[in-house]
Design goal:
The complex is a heterodimer of chains A (253) and B (225).
Chain A: E1 5-16, E2 19-30, E3 34-38, H1 45-51, E4 62-70, E5 73-74, H2 82-88, E6 89-92, H3 103-113, H4 120-132, H5 136-139, H6 152-164, E7 170-174, H7 182-195, E8 200-204, H8 208-214, E9 217-222, E10 225-231, H9 232-237, H10 242-248
Parallel strand pairs in A: 3-8, 3-9, 6-7, 7-8
Antiparallel strand pairs in A: 1-2, 1-4, 4-5, 9-10
Helix pairs in contact in A: 3-4, 3-6, 4-6
Chain B: H1 9-42, H2 45-76, H3 80-109, H4 125-145, H5 148-178, H6 183-215
Helix pairs in contact in B: 1-2, 1-3, 1-4, 2-3, 3-6, 4-5, 4-6, 5-6
The chains are: A alpha/beta (253), B mainly alpha (225).
Protein backbone atom coordinates (compact mmCIF):
# COMPACT_ATOMS: atom_id res chain seq x y z
CA UNK A 1 0.00 0.00 0.00
CA UNK A 2 1.75 3.23 -1.09
CA UNK A 3 2.07 5.64 1.78
CA UNK A 4 1.88 2.91 4.40
CA UNK A 5 4.86 2.38 6.68
CA UNK A 6 7.57 0.25 5.08
CA UNK A 7 10.53 0.82 7.38
CA UNK A 8 10.28 1.70 11.03
CA UNK A 9 12.49 2.32 14.01
CA UNK A 10 11.51 2.95 17.57
CA UNK A 11 13.82 4.12 20.35
CA UNK A 12 16.76 3.06 18.21
CA UNK A 13 20.23 3.46 19.69
CA UNK A 14 23.34 2.56 17.69
CA UNK A 15 26.82 2.50 19.19
CA UNK A 16 30.25 2.17 17.62
CA UNK A 17 32.17 1.01 20.67
CA UNK A 18 31.67 3.73 23.26
CA UNK A 19 30.45 6.27 20.69
CA UNK A 20 26.69 6.60 20.34
CA UNK A 21 25.93 7.27 16.69
CA UNK A 22 22.12 7.25 16.95
CA UNK A 23 20.11 8.33 19.97
CA UNK A 24 16.56 7.22 20.56
CA UNK A 25 15.56 7.47 16.91
CA UNK A 26 11.91 6.80 16.14
CA UNK A 27 11.12 7.02 12.43
CA UNK A 28 8.56 5.75 9.94
CA UNK A 29 9.56 5.57 6.29
CA UNK A 30 6.58 5.44 3.94
CA UNK A 31 6.19 2.77 1.30
CA UNK A 32 6.83 3.70 -2.34
CA UNK A 33 7.91 7.14 -1.37
CA UNK A 34 11.31 8.76 -1.65
CA UNK A 35 12.64 9.77 1.74
CA UNK A 36 15.85 11.80 2.07
CA UNK A 37 18.06 11.98 5.14
CA UNK A 38 20.00 15.20 5.56
CA UNK A 39 22.29 16.59 8.22
CA UNK A 40 25.90 17.59 8.81
CA UNK A 41 28.73 15.07 8.54
CA UNK A 42 28.75 12.64 11.43
CA UNK A 43 25.09 13.24 12.33
CA UNK A 44 24.22 9.55 11.89
CA UNK A 45 22.33 9.61 8.61
CA UNK A 46 24.42 6.88 6.98
CA UNK A 47 24.20 4.84 10.16
CA UNK A 48 20.42 5.08 10.08
CA UNK A 49 20.38 4.08 6.40
CA UNK A 50 22.55 1.07 7.10
CA UNK A 51 20.54 -0.39 9.95
CA UNK A 52 17.77 -1.17 7.46
CA UNK A 53 19.77 -3.89 5.74
CA UNK A 54 22.16 -4.62 8.58
CA UNK A 55 25.20 -3.29 6.79
CA UNK A 56 26.45 -2.25 10.21
CA UNK A 57 26.94 -5.94 11.06
CA UNK A 58 30.28 -5.63 9.28
CA UNK A 59 31.44 -2.73 11.44
CA UNK A 60 33.45 -3.96 14.45
CA UNK A 61 32.06 -2.76 17.77
CA UNK A 62 28.70 -1.78 16.33
CA UNK A 63 25.79 -2.42 18.66
CA UNK A 64 22.12 -1.85 17.88
CA UNK A 65 19.41 -1.49 20.51
CA UNK A 66 15.74 -0.73 19.99
CA UNK A 67 13.23 -1.64 17.31
CA UNK A 68 14.04 -1.83 13.59
CA UNK A 69 11.36 -3.25 11.31
CA UNK A 70 10.67 -3.87 7.66
CA UNK A 71 6.98 -4.45 6.97
CA UNK A 72 6.44 -4.77 10.71
CA UNK A 73 8.96 -7.62 11.03
CA UNK A 74 11.96 -7.12 13.33
CA UNK A 75 15.35 -7.04 11.60
CA UNK A 76 17.51 -7.69 14.60
CA UNK A 77 17.28 -10.74 16.82
CA UNK A 78 17.56 -14.46 16.50
CA UNK A 79 16.24 -16.21 13.41
CA UNK A 80 16.36 -13.24 11.06
CA UNK A 81 17.24 -14.24 7.50
CA UNK A 82 19.88 -11.60 6.78
CA UNK A 83 20.51 -12.78 3.21
CA UNK A 84 16.80 -12.59 2.46
CA UNK A 85 16.67 -9.17 4.07
CA UNK A 86 19.46 -7.81 1.88
CA UNK A 87 17.67 -9.15 -1.18
CA UNK A 88 14.54 -7.30 -0.14
CA UNK A 89 16.44 -4.18 0.89
CA UNK A 90 19.07 -3.32 -1.71
CA UNK A 91 21.86 -0.81 -1.41
CA UNK A 92 23.59 1.62 -3.75
CA UNK A 93 26.78 3.37 -2.70
CA UNK A 94 28.42 6.71 -3.21
CA UNK A 95 31.09 5.55 -5.65
CA UNK A 96 29.76 3.32 -8.39
CA UNK A 97 31.21 -0.10 -7.57
CA UNK A 98 30.56 -2.48 -10.46
CA UNK A 99 32.17 -5.88 -10.21
CA UNK A 100 35.14 -6.36 -12.57
CA UNK A 101 32.91 -8.44 -14.79
CA UNK A 102 30.88 -7.89 -17.93
CA UNK A 103 27.86 -5.62 -17.90
CA UNK A 104 25.63 -8.68 -18.19
CA UNK A 105 27.34 -10.58 -15.37
CA UNK A 106 27.05 -7.57 -13.08
CA UNK A 107 23.29 -7.51 -13.47
CA UNK A 108 22.63 -11.24 -13.24
CA UNK A 109 25.06 -11.81 -10.38
CA UNK A 110 22.42 -11.50 -7.67
CA UNK A 111 19.66 -13.54 -9.34
CA UNK A 112 22.23 -16.23 -10.08
CA UNK A 113 23.55 -16.60 -6.53
CA UNK A 114 20.02 -16.43 -5.13
CA UNK A 115 19.09 -19.09 -7.72
CA UNK A 116 16.18 -16.92 -8.78
CA UNK A 117 16.58 -17.61 -12.47
CA UNK A 118 18.79 -19.37 -15.00
CA UNK A 119 19.37 -19.46 -18.73
CA UNK A 120 17.00 -17.38 -20.84
CA UNK A 121 15.16 -16.21 -17.73
CA UNK A 122 18.37 -14.51 -16.64
CA UNK A 123 18.47 -12.69 -19.97
CA UNK A 124 14.99 -11.40 -19.27
CA UNK A 125 16.06 -10.17 -15.81
CA UNK A 126 19.03 -8.39 -17.38
CA UNK A 127 16.85 -6.68 -19.95
CA UNK A 128 14.19 -5.70 -17.42
CA UNK A 129 16.74 -4.34 -14.92
CA UNK A 130 18.78 -2.43 -17.47
CA UNK A 131 15.59 -1.01 -19.02
CA UNK A 132 14.42 0.18 -15.61
CA UNK A 133 17.55 2.31 -15.25
CA UNK A 134 17.54 3.55 -18.86
CA UNK A 135 20.62 1.59 -19.98
CA UNK A 136 19.13 -1.14 -22.14
CA UNK A 137 18.95 0.74 -25.42
CA UNK A 138 22.51 2.00 -25.11
CA UNK A 139 24.11 -1.19 -23.88
CA UNK A 140 22.08 -4.08 -25.28
CA UNK A 141 24.73 -4.75 -27.93
CA UNK A 142 27.64 -4.37 -25.49
CA UNK A 143 26.48 -6.68 -22.69
CA UNK A 144 29.65 -8.75 -22.76
CA UNK A 145 31.94 -5.73 -22.45
CA UNK A 146 33.54 -4.95 -19.11
CA UNK A 147 31.44 -2.81 -16.79
CA UNK A 148 34.60 -0.92 -15.86
CA UNK A 149 34.64 0.77 -19.29
CA UNK A 150 31.38 2.62 -18.65
CA UNK A 151 31.04 6.28 -17.73
CA UNK A 152 30.53 7.06 -14.03
CA UNK A 153 26.85 7.77 -14.63
CA UNK A 154 26.41 4.52 -16.53
CA UNK A 155 28.25 2.65 -13.77
CA UNK A 156 25.92 4.10 -11.16
CA UNK A 157 22.90 3.18 -13.27
CA UNK A 158 24.35 -0.31 -13.60
CA UNK A 159 24.75 -0.57 -9.83
CA UNK A 160 21.09 0.41 -9.43
CA UNK A 161 20.14 -2.16 -12.10
CA UNK A 162 22.16 -4.76 -10.20
CA UNK A 163 20.24 -3.94 -7.04
CA UNK A 164 16.91 -4.11 -8.91
CA UNK A 165 17.75 -7.48 -10.48
CA UNK A 166 16.98 -9.38 -7.27
CA UNK A 167 13.50 -7.80 -7.12
CA UNK A 168 13.94 -5.77 -3.94
CA UNK A 169 11.20 -3.70 -2.32
CA UNK A 170 13.45 -1.08 -0.76
CA UNK A 171 16.51 0.71 -2.13
CA UNK A 172 18.95 2.38 0.24
CA UNK A 173 21.11 4.96 -1.54
CA UNK A 174 24.10 6.49 0.21
CA UNK A 175 24.93 9.73 -1.62
CA UNK A 176 24.41 8.08 -5.00
CA UNK A 177 25.17 11.24 -7.00
CA UNK A 178 28.15 12.68 -5.16
CA UNK A 179 30.63 11.25 -7.68
CA UNK A 180 28.62 12.50 -10.66
CA UNK A 181 28.62 15.76 -12.62
CA UNK A 182 25.51 18.00 -12.46
CA UNK A 183 23.88 16.68 -15.63
CA UNK A 184 24.43 13.04 -14.69
CA UNK A 185 23.15 13.94 -11.22
CA UNK A 186 19.92 15.31 -12.67
CA UNK A 187 19.42 12.18 -14.75
CA UNK A 188 19.98 9.89 -11.77
CA UNK A 189 17.61 12.07 -9.73
CA UNK A 190 15.01 11.66 -12.44
CA UNK A 191 15.58 7.90 -12.38
CA UNK A 192 15.14 7.81 -8.60
CA UNK A 193 11.84 9.68 -8.96
CA UNK A 194 10.64 7.04 -11.44
CA UNK A 195 11.77 4.19 -9.21
CA UNK A 196 9.81 5.65 -6.31
CA UNK A 197 6.62 4.59 -8.12
CA UNK A 198 7.53 0.94 -7.56
CA UNK A 199 10.02 0.91 -4.70
CA UNK A 200 10.57 2.49 -1.32
CA UNK A 201 13.66 4.69 -1.61
CA UNK A 202 15.71 5.99 1.28
CA UNK A 203 18.56 8.26 0.29
CA UNK A 204 21.32 9.94 2.23
CA UNK A 205 22.45 13.17 0.63
CA UNK A 206 24.76 16.02 1.51
CA UNK A 207 23.04 18.12 -1.10
CA UNK A 208 20.05 19.82 0.50
CA UNK A 209 18.76 21.05 -2.84
CA UNK A 210 18.79 17.46 -4.06
CA UNK A 211 16.65 16.44 -1.10
CA UNK A 212 14.32 19.33 -1.88
CA UNK A 213 14.12 18.43 -5.57
CA UNK A 214 13.45 14.73 -5.40
CA UNK A 215 12.14 13.57 -2.05
CA UNK A 216 8.62 13.24 -0.70
CA UNK A 217 9.74 13.26 2.92
CA UNK A 218 12.89 14.60 4.52
CA UNK A 219 14.48 13.64 7.81
CA UNK A 220 16.97 15.95 9.50
CA UNK A 221 19.53 14.40 11.84
CA UNK A 222 21.86 16.24 14.16
CA UNK A 223 24.38 14.68 16.54
CA UNK A 224 22.67 11.29 16.34
CA UNK A 225 19.15 12.57 16.92
CA UNK A 226 16.36 12.61 14.37
CA UNK A 227 15.27 16.20 14.86
CA UNK A 228 12.43 16.23 12.38
CA UNK A 229 10.95 13.93 9.73
CA UNK A 230 8.20 15.53 7.69
CA UNK A 231 6.98 16.13 4.13
CA UNK A 232 9.82 17.76 2.20
CA UNK A 233 7.77 20.84 1.34
CA UNK A 234 7.22 21.42 5.05
CA UNK A 235 10.89 20.98 5.95
CA UNK A 236 11.94 23.54 3.35
CA UNK A 237 9.20 26.12 3.85
CA UNK A 238 8.26 26.00 7.52
CA UNK A 239 10.18 23.46 9.56
CA UNK A 240 8.88 22.88 13.07
CA UNK A 241 12.23 22.82 14.85
CA UNK A 242 14.62 25.74 15.09
CA UNK A 243 17.61 23.48 14.47
CA UNK A 244 16.10 22.28 11.18
CA UNK A 245 15.43 25.89 10.25
CA UNK A 246 19.03 26.87 10.94
CA UNK A 247 20.35 23.95 8.91
CA UNK A 248 18.20 24.34 5.79
CA UNK A 249 18.73 28.10 5.69
CA UNK A 250 22.49 27.67 5.93
CA UNK A 251 22.95 28.97 9.44
CA UNK A 252 24.33 25.79 10.88
CA UNK A 253 27.10 23.72 9.46
CA UNK B 1 14.43 35.35 10.68
CA UNK B 2 16.80 33.52 12.94
CA UNK B 3 19.14 35.58 15.05
CA UNK B 4 22.14 33.53 14.05
CA UNK B 5 23.85 34.74 10.88
CA UNK B 6 24.25 32.68 7.74
CA UNK B 7 27.47 30.81 7.13
CA UNK B 8 27.52 32.84 3.94
CA UNK B 9 27.73 36.39 5.31
CA UNK B 10 27.08 37.92 1.89
CA UNK B 11 23.59 36.41 1.97
CA UNK B 12 22.93 38.17 5.30
CA UNK B 13 23.99 41.46 3.71
CA UNK B 14 21.59 40.86 0.79
CA UNK B 15 18.69 40.10 3.11
CA UNK B 16 19.43 43.23 5.12
CA UNK B 17 19.59 45.31 1.97
CA UNK B 18 16.26 43.89 0.78
CA UNK B 19 14.67 44.77 4.10
CA UNK B 20 16.04 48.30 3.97
CA UNK B 21 14.79 48.83 0.41
CA UNK B 22 11.27 47.72 1.32
CA UNK B 23 11.28 49.98 4.35
CA UNK B 24 12.46 52.91 2.23
CA UNK B 25 9.77 52.24 -0.35
CA UNK B 26 7.10 52.03 2.36
CA UNK B 27 8.20 55.33 3.83
CA UNK B 28 8.19 56.91 0.39
CA UNK B 29 4.60 55.93 -0.45
CA UNK B 30 3.54 57.05 3.04
CA UNK B 31 5.03 60.44 2.26
CA UNK B 32 3.25 60.58 -1.10
CA UNK B 33 -0.11 59.88 0.52
CA UNK B 34 0.61 62.61 3.06
CA UNK B 35 1.46 65.03 0.26
CA UNK B 36 -1.70 64.18 -1.68
CA UNK B 37 -3.83 64.82 1.41
CA UNK B 38 -2.02 68.11 2.09
CA UNK B 39 -2.57 69.15 -1.55
CA UNK B 40 -6.27 68.29 -1.16
CA UNK B 41 -6.59 70.34 2.02
CA UNK B 42 -4.86 73.29 0.40
CA UNK B 43 -6.56 72.82 -2.99
CA UNK B 44 -3.02 73.08 -4.30
CA UNK B 45 -3.03 71.67 -7.82
CA UNK B 46 0.72 72.20 -8.29
CA UNK B 47 1.52 70.28 -5.13
CA UNK B 48 -0.80 67.50 -6.31
CA UNK B 49 1.03 67.43 -9.62
CA UNK B 50 4.36 66.88 -7.91
CA UNK B 51 2.87 63.81 -6.15
CA UNK B 52 1.88 62.42 -9.54
CA UNK B 53 5.37 63.00 -10.95
CA UNK B 54 7.08 61.52 -7.91
CA UNK B 55 5.38 58.17 -8.40
CA UNK B 56 7.98 57.28 -10.97
CA UNK B 57 10.53 56.76 -8.18
CA UNK B 58 8.14 54.30 -6.49
CA UNK B 59 7.80 52.31 -9.69
CA UNK B 60 11.54 52.16 -10.10
CA UNK B 61 11.94 50.89 -6.55
CA UNK B 62 9.41 48.17 -7.28
CA UNK B 63 11.42 47.03 -10.28
CA UNK B 64 14.69 47.11 -8.36
CA UNK B 65 13.28 45.11 -5.43
CA UNK B 66 11.65 42.59 -7.74
CA UNK B 67 14.93 42.09 -9.51
CA UNK B 68 16.79 41.63 -6.27
CA UNK B 69 14.23 39.04 -5.07
CA UNK B 70 14.48 37.08 -8.32
CA UNK B 71 18.27 37.16 -8.10
CA UNK B 72 18.20 35.86 -4.55
CA UNK B 73 15.77 33.09 -5.46
CA UNK B 74 17.98 32.04 -8.34
CA UNK B 75 21.39 32.40 -6.73
CA UNK B 76 20.78 31.69 -3.04
CA UNK B 77 17.93 29.22 -3.30
CA UNK B 78 16.60 30.34 0.06
CA UNK B 79 14.71 27.92 2.29
CA UNK B 80 12.32 28.12 5.23
CA UNK B 81 12.21 31.57 6.87
CA UNK B 82 14.52 33.04 4.21
CA UNK B 83 12.29 31.72 1.45
CA UNK B 84 9.20 33.07 3.17
CA UNK B 85 10.89 36.41 3.62
CA UNK B 86 11.79 36.75 -0.07
CA UNK B 87 8.36 35.49 -1.19
CA UNK B 88 6.68 37.95 1.19
CA UNK B 89 8.92 40.76 -0.06
CA UNK B 90 7.84 40.06 -3.64
CA UNK B 91 4.20 40.39 -2.68
CA UNK B 92 4.58 43.31 -0.27
CA UNK B 93 6.32 45.34 -2.91
CA UNK B 94 3.26 45.01 -5.16
CA UNK B 95 1.00 46.32 -2.42
CA UNK B 96 3.35 49.21 -1.65
CA UNK B 97 3.48 50.10 -5.33
CA UNK B 98 -0.33 50.10 -5.41
CA UNK B 99 -0.40 52.45 -2.42
CA UNK B 100 1.85 54.72 -4.47
CA UNK B 101 -0.69 54.55 -7.31
CA UNK B 102 -3.48 55.40 -4.86
CA UNK B 103 -1.58 58.53 -3.81
CA UNK B 104 -1.51 59.45 -7.51
CA UNK B 105 -5.26 58.91 -7.80
CA UNK B 106 -5.85 61.08 -4.74
CA UNK B 107 -3.66 63.79 -6.26
CA UNK B 108 -5.52 63.55 -9.57
CA UNK B 109 -8.75 64.25 -7.72
CA UNK B 110 -7.54 67.57 -6.32
CA UNK B 111 -8.42 69.68 -9.42
CA UNK B 112 -11.95 68.21 -9.37
CA UNK B 113 -12.66 69.41 -5.85
CA UNK B 114 -13.08 72.88 -7.40
CA UNK B 115 -13.40 76.25 -5.70
CA UNK B 116 -16.88 75.76 -4.27
CA UNK B 117 -17.21 75.24 -0.52
CA UNK B 118 -16.39 71.61 0.30
CA UNK B 119 -18.86 69.11 1.68
CA UNK B 120 -18.58 68.48 5.39
CA UNK B 121 -17.47 64.92 4.75
CA UNK B 122 -14.30 66.16 3.06
CA UNK B 123 -13.07 67.55 6.36
CA UNK B 124 -12.90 64.02 7.75
CA UNK B 125 -10.64 62.71 5.00
CA UNK B 126 -7.35 63.92 6.52
CA UNK B 127 -8.12 62.05 9.76
CA UNK B 128 -9.13 58.97 7.81
CA UNK B 129 -5.91 59.18 5.80
CA UNK B 130 -3.95 59.60 9.04
CA UNK B 131 -5.53 56.37 10.32
CA UNK B 132 -4.52 54.50 7.15
CA UNK B 133 -1.04 55.99 7.27
CA UNK B 134 -0.75 54.99 10.92
CA UNK B 135 -1.54 51.42 9.88
CA UNK B 136 1.15 51.57 7.21
CA UNK B 137 3.75 52.89 9.64
CA UNK B 138 2.85 50.20 12.16
CA UNK B 139 3.10 47.57 9.43
CA UNK B 140 6.55 48.83 8.44
CA UNK B 141 7.66 48.77 12.06
CA UNK B 142 6.25 45.26 12.47
CA UNK B 143 8.20 44.29 9.35
CA UNK B 144 11.47 45.62 10.68
CA UNK B 145 11.05 44.04 14.11
CA UNK B 146 9.28 40.84 12.95
CA UNK B 147 6.49 41.75 15.35
CA UNK B 148 3.50 39.60 14.42
CA UNK B 149 1.32 41.00 17.22
CA UNK B 150 1.74 44.46 15.74
CA UNK B 151 1.03 43.11 12.25
CA UNK B 152 -2.16 41.51 13.53
CA UNK B 153 -3.19 44.77 15.13
CA UNK B 154 -2.81 46.41 11.72
CA UNK B 155 -5.05 43.74 10.18
CA UNK B 156 -7.65 44.36 12.87
CA UNK B 157 -7.55 48.13 12.33
CA UNK B 158 -8.75 47.82 8.72
CA UNK B 159 -12.37 47.30 9.78
CA UNK B 160 -12.55 50.76 11.36
CA UNK B 161 -11.37 52.43 8.13
CA UNK B 162 -13.90 50.40 6.13
CA UNK B 163 -16.71 51.44 8.47
CA UNK B 164 -15.58 55.05 8.30
CA UNK B 165 -15.78 54.96 4.51
CA UNK B 166 -19.27 53.42 4.57
CA UNK B 167 -20.45 56.20 6.86
CA UNK B 168 -18.94 58.96 4.71
CA UNK B 169 -20.39 57.42 1.59
CA UNK B 170 -23.87 57.48 3.13
CA UNK B 171 -23.49 61.05 4.19
CA UNK B 172 -22.30 62.23 0.77
CA UNK B 173 -24.97 60.21 -0.98
CA UNK B 174 -27.71 61.93 1.08
CA UNK B 175 -26.16 65.32 0.36
CA UNK B 176 -26.17 64.59 -3.36
CA UNK B 177 -29.79 63.37 -3.24
CA UNK B 178 -30.83 66.64 -1.63
CA UNK B 179 -28.85 68.93 -3.91
CA UNK B 180 -27.76 67.99 -7.42
CA UNK B 181 -25.43 70.98 -7.32
CA UNK B 182 -23.01 69.13 -5.03
CA UNK B 183 -22.73 65.98 -7.14
CA UNK B 184 -19.33 66.94 -8.61
CA UNK B 185 -17.81 67.70 -5.20
CA UNK B 186 -19.59 64.68 -3.72
CA UNK B 187 -18.17 62.26 -6.24
CA UNK B 188 -14.69 63.72 -5.80
CA UNK B 189 -15.02 63.31 -2.03
CA UNK B 190 -16.16 59.70 -2.33
CA UNK B 191 -13.47 58.96 -4.85
CA UNK B 192 -10.75 60.44 -2.64
CA UNK B 193 -12.02 58.59 0.41
CA UNK B 194 -12.18 55.34 -1.51
CA UNK B 195 -8.44 55.58 -2.26
CA UNK B 196 -7.75 55.93 1.46
CA UNK B 197 -9.92 52.93 2.22
CA UNK B 198 -8.08 50.90 -0.41
CA UNK B 199 -4.74 52.02 0.98
CA UNK B 200 -5.75 50.45 4.28
CA UNK B 201 -6.66 47.24 2.39
CA UNK B 202 -3.23 47.06 0.76
CA UNK B 203 -1.61 47.79 4.11
CA UNK B 204 -3.56 44.86 5.54
CA UNK B 205 -2.08 42.66 2.80
CA UNK B 206 1.38 43.83 3.82
CA UNK B 207 0.65 42.93 7.44
CA UNK B 208 -0.59 39.48 6.41
CA UNK B 209 2.66 38.90 4.54
CA UNK B 210 4.64 39.84 7.64
CA UNK B 211 2.81 37.20 9.67
CA UNK B 212 3.49 34.68 6.88
CA UNK B 213 7.19 35.56 6.71
CA UNK B 214 7.69 35.33 10.46
CA UNK B 215 5.41 32.46 11.43
CA UNK B 216 4.98 30.52 8.18
CA UNK B 217 1.25 30.82 8.58
CA UNK B 218 -1.02 32.09 5.84
CA UNK B 219 -3.56 34.35 7.52
CA UNK B 220 -5.16 35.66 4.33
CA UNK B 221 -8.86 35.08 3.80
CA UNK B 222 -9.02 33.70 7.32
CA UNK B 223 -12.71 34.42 7.61
CA UNK B 224 -13.73 33.27 4.11
CA UNK B 225 -12.33 29.72 4.25
Amino acid sequence: MPGGVKLRTEALDVYYGAFQALKNVTASIRERRLTALIGPSGCGKSTLLRVFNRMNDFTPGCRVAGVVEVDGTPLYGPGVDVEGLRKKVGMVFQRPNPFPLSIYENVVYGPRIHAMARGPALDAVAERSLSAVGLWDDLKDRLQESALGLSLEQMQRLCIARALAVAPEVLLLDEPCSALDPVATMRIESLMRELAHDYTLLIVTHNMQQAARISDDTGFLLLGELIELAPTATIFTRPRDRRTEDYVTGRYG
Amino acid sequence: MSKQGHINAQFDAELRSLKEQILTMGQLVDRHVGEAVAAMQARDVERARSVILADRAVNQMELAIDEQCIRMLALRQPAASDLRFVAAALKMVTDLERIGDLAVKMAEEVPHLGEAPPLRALSELPAMAAAAQGMLRDALEAFVTSDTAKAEAVMAADAAVDAWMVRLFGEVQRAMELDAGVVGRGLATIFFGKQIERMADHTTNVAEMIVFAVRGQDVRHATST
